[in-house]
Design a protein that fits this description.
Layout lengths: L1 H17 L17 E2 L19 E2 L3 E3 L1 H8 L3 H25 L5 E5 L6 E5 L2 H12 L1 H63 L5 H35 L8 E3 L12 H11 L1 H20 L4 H4 L1 H44 L1
Parallel strand pairs: 3-6
Antiparallel strand pairs: 1-2, 4-5
Helix pairs in contact: 1-7, 1-10, 2-5, 3-5, 5-6, 5-8, 7-10, 8-10
């Protein structure tokens, strides 16, 4: 119960930070049992059934924990690209701040090449407006783009880690399925041997022997399918982390300590603050509101047609963002509360 509670809390934390996570993360286990499988093909003595040769497999190769899988995932090109974009946005922000620092939005002072005198030229109102946008608004926009790129990098980290976790758990499940199917084969083989012994003393019929032989064949075929499932899971994981498809991987799941389950209202509050789509809308609402104020410079939003058009378009976009913020906030609150109910249901199950 404690282990399930811990993992459910981790899932809720993922939903709060980045949104939906793979469903198979709900099936985490804290310890691993690695089983070597080497089964020889056998034939029944009555000649009626012949078992199919089984694929020999020994669980070996690279042993990966969740931490190892996450390290491999964070070395992928998608992560490198996100990091590069973040650095570029950071440079853009610094450049915008540097350009705005000494920008004079009212006039330009220059030396007349013909007279050699220093002259001052005052910009027109519309040019002053454009320069005010560049000085007082563009650096904040560049900062927001950098903040979004930084959060996008963190989101990419979380998504890569979540996918790697899910694939590793699928691999772990396939390994355990082989162990289970191996026990089924051993039990079926033992049952067949006992049925033969009973048939030799006349306590059972040949039909009972044939039934036991068929059960063994079914168990062996199920083991073959489990082996193929493990191979597919291994290839899927290797493909995701850009490793050779035939690399042998053994999943080893270990615990990471405990994370206390929080009240649902705490998860909701954290999600509203952390989710990037809401952060993007909130910050853009602030930016667009400031831009509207800049457009009112010298009443240009009334007297100048281009400024008036830009003002109207910005006002419409601002209202749309406010509506989107309300709608998305409700959607995320419903998502978190729904996930919390599922977590409670799983705990009861």
């Amino acid at each position: 119960m404690k282990r399930g509670k811990t993992w459910a809390s981790l899932v809720m934390a993922g939903l709060v930070a980045v949104g939906g996570m793979p469903a198979n993360q709900l099936n985490a286990v804290d310890k691993v049992e690695t089983t070597a499988i080497e089964i020889q093909a056998k034939e029944t003595t009555n000649g009626l059934f012949t078992t199919s040769p089984l694929v020999k497999n020994v669980t070996a190769g690279v042993v990966l924990t969740q931490r190892d899988a996450r390290k491999e995932a964070l070395a992928l090109p998608a992560v490198v690209k996100a990091q590069r974009t973040e650095r570029e946005r950071f440079d853009d922000m610094n450049n915008a701040i540097a350009r705005a620092k000494d920008l004079d939005t009212e006039k330009i002072t220059f030396e007349n090449p013909f007279t050699g005198k220093t002259e001052t030229k005052t910009y027109s109102d519309t040019i002053q407006l454009s320069l005010r946008i560049q000085k007082y608004w563009s650096p904040d926009q560049a900062k927001l783009l950098w903040e979004l790129a930084k959060r996008s990098t963190e989101l990419t980290y979380a998504q890569m880690e979540a996918t790697a976790d899910g694939l590793l758990m699928g691999l772990y499940s396939a390994q355990n399925d082989i162990a289970s199917k191996t026990r089924d084969v051993d039990a079926a083989r033992l049952t067949l041997q006992r049925t033969r012994d009973k048939q030799s003393v006349g306590s059972v019929t040949i039909f009972d022997v044939e039934t036991s032989a068929l059960d063994l064949e079914k168990a062996e075929k199920a083991l073959v399918w489990a082996q193929r499932s493990l191979e597919n899971s291994t290839r899927s994981y290797n493909r995701f982390v850009a490793k050779p498809l035939d690399r042998q991987v053994t999943a080893k799941l270990v615990g990471y300590g405990t994370m206390p389950a929080l009240p649902v209202d705490d998860y909701v509050e954290r999600a509203i603050q952390a989710r990037m789509e809401l952060y993007n809308l909130r910050e853009n609402i602030v930016l667009q509101t400031r831009l509207l104020e800049i457009y009112t410079f010298k009443n240009l939003n009334v007297t100048d047609e281009d400024t008036k058009s830009n003002y109207t378009r910005t006002a419409v976009n601002l209202e749309k963002m406010k509506v989107d913020l309300v709608v998305q906030t409700r959607s995320i609150v419903a998502e978190i509360r729904g996930a919390y109910l599922e977590m409670q249901k799983s705990r009861l199950d």
